[in-house]
Amino acid sequence: MKSVHVALGVFWLVAALLFVAKPPIGWIVLVVSSVCSLWYLPIGTVFAVVELGLLFTSQIRSLK
Fold it and tell me: Can you tell me the distance from the alpha carbon of 40 to that of 64, in angstroms, rounded to the nearest whole number?
């Protein structure tokens, strides 16, 4: 189970870096990483919902 958390963390960090470097593809990868982290109930779900909410606001989508 530890390797799943490590892989998800690495995926999330890569998605964040892609979002900063190349917004069109980074936005999609960040949405996918947020959806993938919805299963982790204690805190992952809260962060994922907040992240998805921020990603779908008009200001963030205009960066795309």
Answer: 28
> 23-36 vs 2-21: helix axis angle to the nearest 10?
160
Q: Could you tell me the residue range of the domain that residue 24 belongs to?
A: 2-61
pTM of the model: 0.71
pLDDT in tens, 36-58: 888 777 777 888 888 888 888 86
Largest Cα–Cα distance in the chain? 37
Q: Can you tell me the distance from the alpha carbon of 37 to that of 53, in angstroms, rounded to the nearest whole number?
A: 14
Number of domains within the chain: 1
Q: Residue 38 in contact with residue 45, Cβ under 8 Å?
A: yes
